[in-house]
Write a structure and sequence with these properties.
Mean pLDDT: 91
Shape: globular
Strand content: 15-25%
Oligomer: single chain
Largest sheet: 7 strands, mixed
Low-confidence stretches: none
Distance between the termini: 43 Å
Length: 381
């Protein structure tokens, strides 16, 4: 009952947020309001910025496995293969002086400006939560800090964005000797997986966890994004393997995994009970990932031969899969995101997908006969 109520509250919150965001989006597209706060750290001369710049490779769109062609939705196949693959032309470390930071949302402000390359995506400021925090930051009393490397940014509380976008930015930290004695700044109230991943990657002694509040840094180093939020940097996936693969637990898990989102507020399979017979027929174990220790999550994906489930943050762990692993992703019609398709291409997985129809409160349904056909095609080929 409580989960149903939580889903209802989330649904109402999203509807209200969308109305406010629509207003900010219009102003953003007209280069008014939020857009005037965002500047390029690599190109704009509005601020005194010290730049250390390099480039990263491009993640390519990845075609679904040929054996899935008769079972896939053509519209989504076209979406996966359309558009230009993209990573930032430039990435690096941007150093500014007298910068304000608000934790835990990790908004930064330098004389009222936000550096867009440090943010996960330029349109973050169309979200009322982050734009409101930026406006209120100037009015808050700040605690003084001498110097820091800001690893956390908006969306860092989300598992996917933390694992695929923010944590791998430490590649940049490692490449510059002048940063090695500078503390890495992370909110103390960040989700458990943040500190857990930092510890497993070996950076815990270098991190300072700060209490929530507003801070003024005499010198602040910003690590730029390695790729746009809708894309994936191949070097980031390689880095995650180098840093975290050996941290996997020694536990034994099933080779065929169905990753359930039955405990989620959105993108859950509302008729999951109808899929259980099909999953059992093919020897799948149904698991949820919420609350699982990160070493166990890494191990589950390392040793799996087939992974199936609705689009969700748990598939960030595809970064640790073995080439040739089968991955079937469920989409709700009307929602599309290419990120796990790109990771599948980077890791050389056999990728397929199914598209279901939306149901109430953020759920969607998948037809059992389509799942059976997809599993038969990929597992028997």
């Amino acid at each position: 009952m409580s989960l149903a109520f939580d889903r209802f509250k989330h649904h109402v919150k999203v509807l209200i947020g969308q109305r406010l965001a629509a207003v900010l989006t219009r102003r953003y597209l007209q280069h008014r309001g939020p857009a005037k706060r965002m500047i390029s750290g690599f190109a704009d001369n509005a601020l005194d910025i010290e730049r250390h710049v390099e480039t990263f490779s491009v993640a390519q769109p990845f075609a679904p496995a040929a054996s899935m062609s008769e079972d896939t939705d053509q519209e989504y196949r076209n979406l996966l293969l359309s558009g230009d693959a993209y990573t930032t032309d430039q990435a690096g470390v941007l150093t500014v002086r007298d910068a304000d930071v608000s934790l835990p949302v990790s908004m930064h402000s330098i004389m009222g400006f936000v550096i867009q390359e440090a943010m996960p995506a330029p349109y973050v400021l169309t979200n009322p939560k982050y734009y409101g925090e930026l406006l209120s930051l100037r009015l808050k009393r700040k605690k003084q800090m001498r110097e820091g490397v800001l690893l956390s940014m908006p969306w860092a509380h989300k598992f996917y964005h933390w694992m695929i976008d923010f944590l791998p930015r430490l590649m940049l930290y490692d490449r510059y000797s002048h940063l090695q004695d500078v503390p890495i700044i992370v909110p103390k109230s960040a989700p458990k997986f943040v500190a857990e991943s930092i510890r497993l990657a070996g950076y815990l002694p270098k991190v300072t966890f700060l209490e929530d509040g507003a801070y003024r840094f005499g010198k602040l180093h910003l690590l730029s994004r390695l790729a746009h939020a809708e894309y994936v940097c191949p070097e980031a996936i390689c880095w995650l393997n180098e840093k975290l693969s050996t941290a996997a637990s020694s536990s034994v898990f099933a080779k065929r995994l169905y990753i359930s989102r039955r405990d989620a507020k959105i993108r859950f399979v509302s008729n999951e009970h109808e899929l259980l017979d099909v999953l059992s027929e093919f020897g799948f174990e149904v698991v949820t990932m919420s609350g699982r220790p990160l070493p166990d999550q890494i191990r589950m994906f390392q040793t799996a031969e087939c992974i199936v489930g609705p689009h969700g943050a748990a598939f960030s762990n595809l970064a640790f899969t073995t080439p040739g692993t089968i991955f079937i992703e469920f989409f709700c019609r009307g929602h599309f995101c290419r990120c796990f398709n790109l990771i599948s291409g980077i890791r050389k997985l056999r990728y397929g997908f199914l598209v279901g129809d939306p149901t109430s409160m953020g759920g969607f349904s998948i037809q059992p006969f389509q799942l059976r056909a997809a599993l038969s095609s990929l597992l028997r080929s």
